[in-house]
Amino acid sequence: MLNMVFLINSWLSSFNQPGLCITVAVLLHYFLLAAFMWMCLESVHFYLALVKVFNVYVPKYILKCCIAGWGIPAVVITIVLIINKDFYGNGSHSDSNPFSNFCWIQENIVFYISVVAYVFLIFLTNTAMFITVLLQIHSMKSRTQKRSRFWKR
């Protein structure tokens, strides 16, 4: 959906309908945040599968993942819309080319908080999960090598 909304964004912005442009910008923002949230959930699943291998049962795991994956971005979008729906709009880059318009976030501060900071937090989470998984794999490898040396003796 992110790709679809991105591809039709400039075409829809050429209609010069503020409501349509706000809707498209909100959808683009939402699907972008949702894509990154699902990437974060994949790293958490990776952690659970490789580090917490045994005795990890999370009741209604898929439901909780879906609520987080689709709900957290919705909360961010709702907060932005509650503060001011005019943060979204049509950003014209050129008057000579009508297809250079693009519906997106118009305020830099809102962009940095609701996109850049969000993605940065997910990047930190993914990095932490990745390092934890690497350390776990390394410790398993060293334990296996110690056992094989012991049995060879």
From TrEMBL:
Q: What is this protein called?
A: AGRG4 protein
Annotated ranges, domain G-protein coupled receptors family 2 profile:
1-153
Coiled-coil residues: none
| Source organism of this protein record | Oceanites oceanicus
Superkingdom, according to UniProt? Answer: Eukaryota
Q: Which InterPro entries match?
A: GPCR_2-like_7TM, GPCR_2_secretin-like
Keywords from the named record: Membrane, Transmembrane, Transmembrane helix
Subcellular localization is given as: Membrane
Biological-process GO terms, alphabetical: adenylate cyclase-activating G protein-coupled receptor signaling pathway; cell surface receptor signaling pathway
Any one GO molecular function term: G protein-coupled receptor activity
Q: Where are the transmembrane segments?
A: 20-41, 61-83, 109-137
